[in-house]
């Protein structure tokens, strides 16, 4: 996942779900009940109590109305025997050894992508992906003899496992081949060398062991295992693996998306499952949080141009001085984060409030009331925002990440610029952020006597050609603006979400020999970064960033992603294979996707 942080794949919570419709229909009933209760239970004498009653009645009614309905574990029926038999195989020591070989071998082929890479064909560093393809060919012989492989833009891998019923929309399992580079300065900090793929009896070590070779090799391992049992799909399964996800996917996923659109058309895919959220323990229960949205993105370049000159006769403010004031203005006015009921994170808390075992009583009550009370919603926000990671999931963020200006100690800087990185809230837009930033700097532009152009629009009131001390220009720094992703439907009638939920529960249970229906809670989730799916919106509304990764206890979140000592437990990896296998078989039987 693209996201330069260790918190990157943290609990990966949540999303807003249409599954939670406001209970308007019950409001009339509710009012009647309130009045009735007042008359029945009270009488005139206890009127003082009636203020409490509406709340009580609300609570009673709420108990019957789930805001986070859970689907049952879903296991294949038509291919039930095959699934059971594979389930048994996945639990054996010999399969574990096979899984270690598959993933360890993939880690041993470095596939780093660098921020400054040129196009395929020009930049020779891409050639590192050819040996990775050779590796896949050798490691997954059945996949390569059965599926149809197209190499898109040389290194993008598009495998099609043709189903017998062409009228069924395919499912797409996505992932990426590239890994973030290992910082040479930190190599000595690795317990086992970053490209060793070392297996210590419990964990497989190395760059990519989690992000995202566990997803890519996990899905390939599932297909290879299914092929070994002679399974032939009814519904087409597509595997789409980009090779520059960590640097925005313009060479890989962007071209894969075009190829897929050409093959299946707009909305021609049933569902897409890409890297993203996993499951973790929260409030005494285990909760899976498939990502159903993604924040948007905008890098704003703030540039000041001023007349140059010798610095022995300086103006009161140089371009650098003015730029500094603008940046201080930014930091003095951060975006306000506001939790709304449309927020994926809100849905996650609804699910926790309803299903998690150890949610404190007060918090549980606040969550329940937040559905209809603005005050409770604000209280909940206050509670949630105590965690800065959660706060950043909800609001638009800003960070001044680059700065440049001046060429010589005795010359006035003719240009000074900075780049402010924004991650845009799910309920906002690129346009809103542009408007916000333009407005923010207006006062200072005037004070400094600058002509002001923001995103191609003249902002300053200055008459054309009027004298000024220079100019201020805001622009999309790299042309990489990205709207927040469309929110994936999660309602009761959203078949893909229900299928995924049931699959998560079945995979979790079968891996542990459990049989309950709520051993794991499934909730809409909000991932903290962007994935290759940014290019896949036209293929389907049903996009999930989820790879069934066991993130364990809160204190033990995904270790080493984008930093030193990346490693995955082999048990976790085998469970990922179970998940993909169950997903493929369930999707194969689903008639309503
Ligand atoms: C699946 O296999 C595991 C062992 O790996 C076992 O505990 C579990 O009972 C099996 N589940 C089913 C449904 O067969
Ligand atoms: C703006 O700058 C120009 C050029 O230096 C100057 O002529 C003009 O008087 C300034 N206007 C104000 C309001 O400071």
TrEMBL record:
Pfam families: M20_dimer, Peptidase_M20. One of its GO terms (biological process) is proteolysis involved in protein catabolic process. Keywords: Hydrolase, Membrane, Metal-binding, Protease, Transmembrane, Transmembrane helix, Zinc. GO terms for molecular function: metal ion binding; metallocarboxypeptidase activity. The chain crosses the membrane at residues 33-57. Gene3D superfamilies: 1.10.150.900, 3.30.70.360, Zn peptidases. Signal peptide: none annotated. It comes from the Eukaryota. SUPFAM superfamilies: Bacterial exopeptidase dimerisation domain (SSF55031), Zn-dependent exopeptidases (SSF53187). The active site is at 178, 245 (proton acceptor). Zn(2+) 2 binds at residues 176, 211, 274. Belongs to the peptidase M20A family. This is To MEROPS metallopeptidase family M20A. The lineage of its organism: Eukaryota, Fungi, Dikarya, Basidiomycota, Agaricomycotina.
